[in-house]
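Morning run. Coffee first, then this:
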Amino acid sequence: MNYSAPIVHRTLEREREKLLPGVVVSFTILMHPPARFAPMPRTIGLVELENGRRVLAPLITEAPYIGQEVRPRMRLSLVTE
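And here it is:
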């Protein structure tokens, strides 16, 4: 792969674009696996970023609400053996 200055610059810009704050537009709680296997609920939200893009993202707040301002964070969600 070519690592010239313009390519690196565009790549870094795209990465910064993904880390914008936003507002929760809607959210849902997913239960997987089914209830008989001790489910681990996950809250997934549709977030509108400052630049107008909408993305799906896991929400780590206890009680999310529509209109809530959120910031991107990285969190380890699962470790397998």
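The chain has a mean pLDDT of 82. Good start to the day.
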